[in-house]
Amino acid sequence: MSSSNKSRESWKTGLSLVGIIVIGILLNILGSKLNGALGSPLFIDNIGTLLSALLGGYIPCITVGFFTNIINGLSDSFTMYYCIISVLIAVAAVSFAENMRRLKIRYICLGTLTFAFLGGVVGGLLTWLINGLNFGEGYAVDMASKINSVIPMGYFLSNLLSTFLIDLVDKAITVVIVLIIYKLLPLKLLNFVHTRSWYYITAFEKPSRHNRKRISLRIKVTLVVALSITLVATAAIGVSILQYHNSTVAEYEEDGRYAALLISEKLEPQRINDYIEKGEAAEGYKNAEEFLKTVADVSPEIKYVYVYRIERDGTHVVFDVDTPELKADEPGSIIEYDDSIEKYRDQFLAGEEIPTDITDDEYGWLLSVYEPVRDSTGKVRCYIGVDMEMNRLRSDEFAFLAKIISLFLGFLLLIRTYAVWMAERHIIIPINSIAHVSRRSGYDTPEARELWITMLDNLNIRTGDEIETLYEDYRRAAHNTVRYIEEIQHKSEQLTKLQNGLILVLADMVESRDQCTGDHVFKTAAYTEIILRQMQIEGIYADELSEEYIEEVINSAPLHDVGKITVSDVILNKPGRLTDEEFRIMQSHTTEGGKIIDKAIAIVDEDSGYLNEAKNLALYHHEKWNGKGYPTGLKGTEIPLSARVMAVADVFDALVSRRSYKEPFTIEKALDIIKEDAGTHFDPLVAKAFLDAEEDVRRIAKLNMEL
Asked: What is the rounded distance in angstroms from the CA atom of residue 277 to the CA atom of residue 257?
C-alpha cells in the first residue's frame, strides 16, 4: 500500500473511531435523560457503551464509558465518581462482544448478569462508601427495606440485593436494545468498522510454538504501563487522602478556634475567681453559661465546651457544658489532669499558648483547642477548651477515598487502554510484522526469495521513529542479501558446470586412448542416472538416496575408469584376448584410479562428496555381489552403493558395445545377462531397478548404437 493510500486509510480510521465514540456517548446520555423524564428507577445509560463494544472493541468502548460519566458529572458531580463502574462494564462488554454478536443466548445471559453485578453490586458498594457508609435514599433503599422485612438479612446485604435486582432489569433491557440496533445496521458498515486498526488490541500473530514460553513484547508493555499507572495512582491517591485529611483537620481546628474566640470575647476575665468560688450564684455566670451552650450547639462537630483554670493542684472547673453522654463537672470543683492537659501542663501553668491536640480515647476521637483568657495586664486567668468530634472524618475519608479511587481508576484504565494501543500500533505490531515476515523468509528458491522481499516491501512501516529506521535498514539488508545470494548461486552454478565439464573432458581424454570404448563414459553416466532415479521411485535404499547423493554419483560417474590412464596403450587397444599378465595390469586400473582421486582429495583438503563417490566408483566398480570381483573381493553391501550401480551400467554398456575382441550383443541378450547375474555379479535390487527402467535403458542404448 502506498503512503498516500495509507494516509487516507488512517483518516478513515480516525473519523470512524471518533464517530463511534460520539454516537456512543450521545446514546448513553439520551437513554439516561429519557429514563429520567419517565421517572423510572432504572438507568438505561449503557446503550452506547455496549454498542461501541460490539462495533469497535476496547478503544471506543472504554472511551465512551469514561466520558459519559465525565459529561454527566458536569450537571451532577455525584455521577462523575462512577467512572470506574462504567469502565469495568465496558471491559466486560468487549469480553462478551463476539458471542453477543453471534446471538449466543448463554453468553448474552452471562454477560447481562456480569453487567448487573458490576452496576448493581459493585456500584452499590461504591454508593455506600461515597455516602459515608450509607446507601442514601431512593427507590432501591425502599425496596431493600421491603426485602429485609420479608427475608431478614440486614441493611447492607438487603440494599446490595436491591440494587442488583434493579440493575439486572436495567441491563437486560439495555442488552436487548443494543442487539436490535446492531442487527439493524448495514453489513457494509459492520465490515468496515470490524477491520479498523483500533478494533483489536492483540499482537500481530500468535507466538510460534517454540516461543510460547517467552513473555511477549505486548505483555511486557502492558506490565510496564500497568505498573507505572499503579505507582502513579497509588502516590496520587495517597497524597490526595493525606491532603484531604490535613485540610479537614485544619477546618476542624479553625472551627474550634473560632468557637473558643467567640467565648473568650463574652467572658469577663476579672470575674473568673467569682465564677470558681460562687458558681451559678456569681453575677453574669448564667449568661456566660448559656452562651457556651449556644456555641456548643452551633456545629454538630463541637462535642465538649468548657473553661478551666490550670493550677498545680489540678484542673479548676470554671464552666462545663452538659452533653447527652457526659454530665458536666460543677464549677469550682478540682479534677485530675486528663491526658491532654497533662501533656502540656508546664505550658498551661506558665500561661503560654497551647497547641492543638488530637486524642483518641474513651471520650472519642477528639481535636482539642485551648484559647487563653487574659486580663487587662496580659495575665492568663483561664483556658477555654473546645473539643471537636472527628468521628465523621472517618466516614468522610472513606467517601472521599471511594470517589477518588473510582475517578482515578476509570481515568487510568482509559489511559492504559490508549497507551497499550499506541504501543501496539507504533511498536509491537511493526516489530511483530517484521518478525512475522522474517520467520517466513526463504532463500532456497527464487520464488521464495521473491515472496520474502515482496512481503517485506508491502509492510511499508511509517512510524517516523527508530522503528521505521530499523525496518528500512532490515529491508535494505534483505534486498542486499537476496542479491548476494543470487550472485553466489550464479557463480556456484558456473563453478559446478566448469567442474562437471572438466570431469567429462578428463574422462573423455582417458577414454580416447581406448579405441574400443567409444562414448563409454557418457553412456555409463546415463545408465547410472536411470538406475538411481528408478531406485528412488521404488524406494530402494531410500535412506541413502538423497537428492544430493544422486547428483554426486551422476557427476562423478565419468571418472570410474580414470585409472586406465596408467595402463599401456598396447594393452588397452590389443585386438585379441589379453594374457594373464596383461589382464592383471588391466585390473590395476581400479586401484590406480583410487590413488589418482586420493591425490585430488588431498589437494582439495575438504570433504567433497563427489570426489569420495568418484573414488568409490573407480576403486570398486568391478567388485561382485558374491565377493568374486576385484581388486579387494568385497561382497554384498560391503561394496559402496554407487559402485554397485556402476557395475550394472558398466557391464551392460560393454555388452551392447562393439569391442576389438567381440561383436555387440543385442539389447535383449544383454538384458537377459543382467537378469541372470542378479544376485551373483550384481546387487539384485539394483539389477531389478535397471530392468524395471527397460524403456529408458533401450532409448539410451539405441541412441548410442545409431551414433
From this structure: 27
Q: For residue 427, what is the DSSP state? A: I
Rg of the Cα atoms in the chain: 51
Helix 694-706 / helix 684-692 crossing angle, nearest 10 deg:
70
320: nearest Cα among 337, 340, 301, 303 = 303
Tell me what pLDDT residue 209 has: 46
From 161-175, 258-272, 411-425, the region with the lowest mean pLDDT: 411-425
Q: Report the range out of 140-144, 369-373, 613-617 with the highest average pLDDT.
A: 369-373
- Residue-range domains of the chain with CATH: 3-200 (1.10.1760), 243-397 (3.30.450.20), 434-489 (no CATH), 513-706 (1.10.3210.10)
Confirm if 165 and 106 have CB atoms less than 8 A apart: no
Could you identify the residue written with the cell 472517618? 394
Residues 6+ apart with CB under 8 A from 369: 253, 256, 257, 259, 260, 356, 385, 386, 388
CA angle (537, 634, 604) in 5-degree steps: 75
Q: Which pLDDT tens digit goes with each residue over 241-277?
A: 878 888 888 999 999 999 999 999 989 999 999 999 9
User: Are the C-beta atoms of residues 413 and 201 closer than 8 Å to each other?
Assistant: no
How much is the pLDDT for 207?
A: 45
- What is the distance of C-alpha 440 from the center of its chain? 21
The whole-angstrom separation of Cα 429 and Cα 280 is 86
Amino acid at 568: S
User: 209, 231, 206, 232: which is closest to 218 by C-alpha?
Assistant: 206
Are 651 and 621 in contact, with CB atoms under 8 Å apart?
no
- Local structure of 397: helix, strand or coil: helix
Residue 257's φ and ψ, nearest 5 degrees, are -65, -40
Residue 657 near residue 518 (C-beta atoms within 8 A): yes
Residue 562 phi/psi, 5-degree rounding, is -60, -25
Q: Residue for cell digits 434493579?
A: 166
Average pLDDT for residues 492-503, to the nearest whole number? 59
Interatomic CA distance for residues 25 and 51, integer angstroms: 10
Q: Report residue 85 as a C-alpha cell.
A: 463502574
How many residues are listed for the chain in this entry? 707
Helix (H) or strand (E) holding 681: none
Cβ(452)–Cβ(440) below 8 Å: yes
Query: Which grid coordinates are listed for 529?
Result: 542416472
DSSP, collapsed to helix, strand or coil, labels residue 581 as helix
Report DSSP letters for 94-146, one per residue: HHHHHHHHTT-HHHHHHHHHHHHIIIIIIHHHHHHHHTTS---SSHHHHHHHH
The stretch 496-516 carries a mean pLDDT of 55
Read off φ and ψ for residue 390, nearest 5 degrees.
-110, 15
pLDDT digits (tens, 9 = 90+) for 210-241: 444 556 666 777 777 777 777 777 777 777 88
pTM, 2 dp: 0.50
Enumerate the β-bridge partners of residue 308: 317, 383
Long-range contacts, 451-460 (Cβ 8 Å, 24+): 452/478, 452/482, 453/478, 453/479, 453/482, 458/1, 459/430, 459/433, 459/434, 460/1, 460/2, 460/3, 460/6
| 203 or 159, higher pLDDT | 159
Find cell 469502565 and name the residue.
Answer: 87
- Give the angle subtended at the CA of 428 by the CAs of 422 and 434, to the nearest 5°: 135
The rounded distance, in Å, linking the Cα atoms of 524 and 641 is: 15
First to last CA, the chain: 60
Cα dihedral 272/277/283/288 (nearest 10): 50
Q: How many CB atoms lie within 10 A of CB 192?
A: 14
DSSP 584-595: HHHHTHHHHHHH
